[in-house]
Each structure stands twice: as structure tokens, then as C-alpha cells.
Design brief:
Layout lengths: L5 H11 L4 E6 L6 E5 H16 L7 E5 L4 H13 L2 E5 L7 H15 L1 E6 L4 H8 L9 E4 L21 E6 L9 E5 H12 L9 E4 L6 H14 L2 E5 L1 H6 L2 H9 L4 E4 L1 H9 L3 H5 L8 E4 L6 H11 L9 E6 L6 E4 L8 E5 H5 L13 E5 L9 E5 L13 E6 L11 H8 L12 E10 L2 E7 L4 E3 L2 E3 L1 H9 L5 E10 L8 E7 L1 H4 L2 H12 L6 E7 L14 H10 L4 E6 L11 H7 L2 H20 L19 H15 L7 H4 L3 H9 L11 H5 L8 H12 L3
Helix pairs in contact: 1-2, 2-3, 6-7, 10-12, 15-17, 20-23, 21-25
């Protein structure tokens, strides 16, 4: 049987490798595991397909809101087996429903979603979440894990072929409204083929991934690749990884993992959140591909990773780079197995002029770039001037345009955007059609190098500056600035040529804000830039996509609207930013009878700032979660209040004392019964499987605070 669709592919695996393990999910990130064979996955997919066909017609769209795990994979294949289009998304928690609803409403409306699928455990929560929206309230739901397996016997193959759509992958919306990328079976199977070439997969391979399976790399490489290659995939929940990154590395050692993808920051976390003793206990000698698949890739990070895990078996030949995006199904270019990763030292000033000039690594202004691999099979890349659409010279930087079967079919129900993005042609040679990636880069000796986003370029006095360069220098300028949490952008409305910088900070490390501002201004000097505005904001409040990329445009917009929860702000030519009042001193000075009111007002102000609502909208006797305060926000707010009042609050304080008044009375009632917040060591240790969502969020916040 020819495997020209995902249906025929999984059916073939269920026949030739029926009892072989297809996927193992580590439910607690460690030893609590569940494994399905290829035959079991196929049976569940057929049963779900029959249940779906009784509710929706072929070609209709089904929203998939699942936690990480095997139930999602069964539902996804169930949609494919039914001939309906899956729309996989991250499930919005009930505590962040209001903030998640606008995007969910836009996607449901754009996709014309007919029904929602989730698990029995989440179905009531999903009904409650969509019930907050008049446009979503009537959405029907199917708990697919409750579908009887006996229905599988009633399944018949759908009438689909290679050109049929397999699913809709909605973009993150980092620069615009979310758009549904139409991925066909042919797109997906070709992309899996290119991933498979020169990557060392065989029947004995083991994929170990914590990447979210609703996102392109986690879905295609972490989810579909094991089925394509007929080998085992081991999945972890992203939250479990973030709580203790060594879980991912330990799983690689335990299951003899050979392939494991992750973004750059994960390799950094694996080093900083592990001890030499933990690393020495692991055997990673079978790990062939540590796929760093998210730009920007940092040489320094990988060097630290190889040094730290070298005694465990990791070498530079383990590290692989790749580049891709949803519109290209997943991968565009990658480095073949058993080669050394490619780096190039270029002149930073020339790069800003869109020219590639090689220099020595120690030359002034040198910038080390990571190659993202080569295109294989029929995939092609052109480097094109984004304004003139003329092909760039071989040493020029331009927009990366992609051609070949890997390019998806366009955007769902958006013909104009499809023509603009997916059907581009060069003006000098009329070559095409190409996918316009929006990424800037160049090709050197066959290797694709990504240098930044075209729309994020900072242009000052006619010179181009890559925000990633500025952000990297700023985050290293002062110990209070959180790595990977800095946004730099143009502020064209100012009279002077300058940039804006928004940076998350560790509040307890800021000290004198003027010292931080001075360090940031100094970091911009080598770039020939001055700052118009520097905003220091609370941890975990900068806007990012689901894959962790900084949303620079949204951050700039929020700065101009004054929506950030500021620690401090500096505006040129002002020299002194306002310093936050010491609440503990104010409480100590206030009469006893007035303290509750003072603290209630302060809590209401914090919540209002967090949620972006007027402080008058905060009812001191109403549960804060009803306002849309999510678990992570509650943990962060508890941490802020701990510092404000000088008392350590427990991670679950805002759930145990859910109103502003109840929380204030708890704080003022004394400290003996206060639960101390977890220390970094405690955060890295095991927790009960039935830990509350707020407790998990507390651990997540603790694990992420050093990013």
C-alpha cells in the first residue's frame, strides 16, 4: 500500500509494527508513564473518527484543545481518519480565559469550527471557558477519551488523497491576527521525508520531546516523525520540563534517546539547572541529534552545553541546527547528522548594511552567526530584497523566500494574504512562486543563515539594526535584567533618532533603577544608538508567542499605551524615574484601623494593573479569579505582595484567600500560619502528581525566574 496520506501511513505502521511502542507519555515527567503501540493508536483513531462522523461532515473543522499527551495524538489522527480538519491549539485554562478568548474567538470564526474536542477531565472546564463568550457559547464538545473502542470496527477510510488538507496550523499572531495555514497530506509527508534525510533515523531511534504538540515543530517532528519512521516517541509535558529541565535529559538517558528537539533556551536551562553530579550519572552516548530548532541559536549556549554534558557523551557532533515555520509545514533547512554545526564570524557593521563580510572571531564588531543547515530534496531558498523583490547578490542579506513541496497551501479563507505570502515572484527573473518568510538572512556555502525579522528591523539614520543584537547586549548589561525577556524597537514618533527598550527584571536585584538605566544606555553605545525610553517591567509580563518569541510590535504598542506593569521607567531627557513607595513602611506608619483599607486598595491596584482594568472595577469581596487572573498571575502577584509587605506568602495564597479583603486580612493576621514560598531547591524537587494548578504555576515561576 502506497503511503501517500497520514491515514495510509499509520495504517501501514499498525500492520507492520503493530505491537511496537509508538508513543510513551511521562504523565509526571518522570516514572508515571503510559505507552501505546502503533496498533492501539490506530484503533483509537478509528473509533474517534466514527464518533466524529456522527456529528460533523467531511471537511468540517474540529477545534482540538488538549493537554500534552497521547489523547491529543489520538484525537488528531481521529480527525484525519474522519476526513475532517483538526485545528490544534493550546487549551486556555479557566483562570486565564478572558485573556485567551479574543484569539480563540478569532480562530473559531475564521476556521468556521463545527465542534470542539478535548478530554473528559477538561470538557467541563472548556465549556465554562467558551461559555464566557456569546459567540462560542453554542460550541458542541466531544470528550474523545470516552469514545468506545468498539466503534473502531465501524470505520471506513475517508475519501482523501495527497492534495487533501490534513489540518489547519494557526500562526501565533506575533505580528498580525492569527491565520490558519493549510497543510496538505503531501506537504506533511514531503516535510517528514526531508526531515528524515541524513538525520540518522531508523527503527531503533527514540524521539524524546517536551515541545508543545499544538505547535509546528513539536507537532511535525515530535508527533508525526515517530509514526513516519516507525520508531518510539517519548513525550513530556512542557510544564514538567520547565519545572525541572533535567527531566528531559534524564528521559533521554533512560529511554536511550537518539533524537531530541528543543529551542536554544532549553539547552541553557539544562546547564544552569543541573549539577555536575546529576550530569555525571547519565549516559547520553546514544544521543545523535540534539536539534536546536529555534532562532536565535547561540554559540555560547551550545558551547556551555557541550562542556557540561561532555562527560555524559554529548559532543559537538550531537548538536544540529534547523530552520522552519508553520507556513513551510515545519522544516526548511537542517544540518545532516554526524557533522559539526556551522558558525560564521561576520562584520556586525556590514551586516547592518545588509552585507556579509567575513572577519576573524576576535575582530572588533565581529558577530558569530549559527548556520541553520541546508535545503534538501526539492526545497529551494532565494534571498530577495523585500522592497524591490530583486534577487540579492551572494554576499547580500535579504528576505528568505522558500519554494518546493514543503510550502503549505496558503491561509484558510484569506486569498489576498495567500497571494502576498505564498505566491511571490522575483521582479528580476520572475522566478517563483515562493513563500515569503518575513525572515532576513543569507546563504553561504549552501548553508542558510537567519539574521532577524524584516518587520522588526530598527532603522536609525538610515542604518539597519537587528533587535536581537541590541537585546542580547541589554540583557547582559545588568544582573537584574532577565535573559530572553528584552524587547528593542524603533520609536519613530520621537524627534531624536533613538530606540525603545522594555526589559523584565528581577525586582529584588534592581536596587537603584538609575544604575540599570545607565547600564542599558551604555549597552547601546557600541551600536551608535541612544535610548528614547527604557521600561523595566515585572517578571513574566512581556508579550511572547506560544513558542517563546518576543512580540516586539505588541510590546511597543503596550509601552506607548502605558499598559506595562512598571518597576521603573526612564524617558529621555529625564534623568530620574519615579521610585515605588515602600508599602511596608506605609503600613507600619498607618493607624491599625486604617491598615486593612490601605492594603486592600494596594492589592486592588496590583490586580488592576495585572489585568489592565480600572482599579474601580475590582470588588474587594469578589473572587479575583473571576476577573481572569490566571494561576501564573496569581503566583506572581503573591510574590509581589510578599515583597511589598515584607512577609512571605504561600504560592497558593490567592486561591486560599480569593478576595482582596480576605488576602489583606490574611496578611495582617500575622505570619505564624503563612506557608513559606518554595526555594529554588524545593522547586527542583519532586511534587505530588495531584499538586494544584497554582502549586504547579509556582514551581514554573520559580524555574523560569533565572531565564
Amino acid at each position: 500500500m502506497m503511503n501517500d496520506t497520514l491515514v495510509s501511513l499509520l495504517r501501514a505502521r499498525a500492520a507492520d509494527r503493530a505491537d511496537a511502542p509508538a508513543f510513551t507519555f511521562l504523565r509526571d515527567g518522570d516514572r508515571d508513564e503510559v505507552t501505546w503501540t502503533f496498533a492501539q493508536l490506530d484503533q483509537r483513531a478509528r473509533a474517534i473518527a466514527v464518533a466524529l462522523r456522527r456529528r460533523v461532515e467531511p471537511g468540517e473543522r474540529v477545534l482540538l484543545l488538549y493537554p500534552q499527551g497521547l489523547d491529543f495524538l489520538a484525537a488528531l489522527f481521529g480527525c484525519i481518519y474522519a476526513g475532517v480538519l483538526a485545528v490544534p491549539l493550546q487549551p486556555p485554562g479557566k483562570h486565564r480565559a478572558r485573556s485567551a478568548l479574543p484569539k480563540l474567538e478569532a480562530i473559531v470564526a475564521d476556521g468556521g469550527v463545527a465542534i470542539g474536542g478535548t478530554t473528559s477531565e477538561l470538557v467541563d472546564e472548556m465549556r465554562a471557558v467558551v461559555g464566557l463568550s456569546p459567540s462560542l457559547r453554542g460550541l458542541d464538545w466531544l470528550a474523545t477519551d470516552g469514545v468506545a473502542l468498539s466503534l473502531a470496527d465501524d470505520w471506513s477510510p475517508p475519501e482523501i488523497g495527497p492534495d487533501s488538507l490534513a489540518y489547519l496550523q494557526y500562526t501565533s499572531g506575533s505580528t498580525s491576527a492569527p491565520k490558519g495555514v493549510m497543510v496538505s497530506h503531501a506537504n506533511l509527508l514531503y516535510n517528514l521525508h526531508t526531515f528524515d534525510l541524513d538525520f540518522g533515523h531508523d527503527a531503533s531511534s527514540v524521539m524524546v520531546s517536551w515541545l508543545p504538540t499544538f505547535h509546528d515543530l513539536g507537532l511535525v517532528y515530535g508527533g508525526f516523525m515517530p509514526v513516519y519512521g516507525g520508531f518510539r516517541g517519548v513525550l513530556l509535558d512542557p510544564l514538567h520540563f520547565l519545572r525541572r529541565p533535567m527531566r528531559w535529559i534524564e528521559a533521554i538517558a533512560r529511554f536511550h534517546g537518539t533524537h531530541a528537539p528543543a529551542p536554544n533556551f532549553a539547552f541553557e536551562l539544562a546547564v544552569t539547572r543541573s549539577t555536575p553530579e546529576e550530569r555525571a550519572a547519565l549516559d547520553l552516548s546514544r544521543w545523535r541529534v540534539a536539534l536546536n530548532g529555534a532562532e536565535p541559536i547561540r554559540y555560547d549556549t551550545e558551547a556551555r552545553f557541550v562542556e557540561a554534558f561532555g562527560p555524559s557523551g554529548v559532543t559537538w557532533r550531537t548538536i544540529r541546527h534547523a530552520y522552519g515555520m508553520s507556513e513551510s509545514t515545519a522544516v526548511i533547512a537542517k544540518e545532516p547528522v554526524d557533522t559539526l554545526p556551522v558558525f560564521l564570524d561576520v562584520d556586525g557593521a556590514a551586516l547592518e548594511r545588509h552585507q556579509v563580510v567575513l572577519v576573524d572571531a576576535d575582530a572588533p564588531g565581529a558577530r558569530r552567526l549559527a548556520g541553520c543547515g541546508v535545503c534538501v530534496a526539492q526545497t529551494t531558498v532565494a534571498i530577495v530584497d523585500p522592497d524591490t523583490r530583486r534577487t540579492c547578490p551572494s554576499d547580500g542579506v535579504g528576505e528568505i523566500w522558500v519554494g518546493g513541496p514543503t510550502v503549505a497551501q496558503g491561509y484558510w479563507r484569506q486569498p489576498d494574504a495567500t497571494v502576498e505570502t505564498f505566491e511571490a515572484r522575483t521582479s528580476d527573473t520572475d522566478a517563483g512562486p515562493y513563500l515569503r518568510t518575513g525572515d532576513l538572512g543569507f546563504v553561504w556555502d549552501g548553508n542558510v543563515f537567519v539574521t532577524g525579522r524584516h518587520k522588526d528591523l530598527i532603522i536609525v539614520r538610515g542604518e539597519n539594526h537587528y533587535p536581537q543584537d541590541l537585546e542580547w547586549d541589554v540583557q547582559n548589561a545588568h544582573p537584574s535584567i532577565r535573559p530572553s525577556c528584552v524587547a528593542a524597537f524603533s520609536l519613530e514618533q520621537r524627534a531624536t533618532d533613538a530606540v525603545g527598550v522594555v526589559a523584565e527584571v528581577y525586582v529584588d536585584k534592581v536596587g537603584d533603577p538609575d544604575a540599570v538605566f545607565a547600564a542599558v544606555r551604555e549597552a547601546l553605545v557600541p551600536h551608535g544608538l541612544s535610548a528614547a525610553t527604557i521600561a523595566l517591567i515585572k517578571p513574566s509580563t512581556i508579550d511572547k508567542t506560544s513558542s517563546g518569541k518576543i512580540m516586539r510590535r505588541r510590546t511597543r504598542e503596550r509601552l506607548l499605551l502605558g499598559e506595562h506593569e512598571l518597576v521603573a521607567r526612564w524617558d529621555a531627557p529625564e534623568e530620574v524615574a519615579p521610585v515605588e513607595v515602600d508599602l511596608s513602611a506605609r503600613l507600619a506608619a498607618a493607624p491599625t484601623i486604617a491598615r486593612e483599607g490601605l492594603l486592600v486598595a494596594h492589592i486592588a491596584g496590583r490586580v488592576a494593573a495585572r489585568l489592565g482594568v480600572d482599579v474601580d472595577a475590582i470588588d474587594p469581596d469578589a473572587p479575583l479569579r473571576e476577573l481572569g487572573l490566571d494561576s501564573v498571575g496569581a503566583v506572581e502577584l503573591a510574590e509581589l505582595l510578599s515583597r511589598d509587605v515584607g512577609v512571605e506568602l504561600g504560592a497558593t495564597a490567592l486561591w486560599d484567600h480569593p478576595t482582596a479583603r480576605a488576602l489583606a486580612r490574611f496578611v495582617l493576621g500575622g505570619t505564624p500560619e503563612v506557608v513559606v514560598a518554595p526555594t529554588p531547591a524545593a522547586a527542583a524537587s519532586d511534587v505530588p502528581v495531584d499538586a494544584t494548578e497554582a502549586e504547579l504555576a509556582a514551581l514554573l515561576a520559580e524555574e523560569l525566574k533565572d531565564l
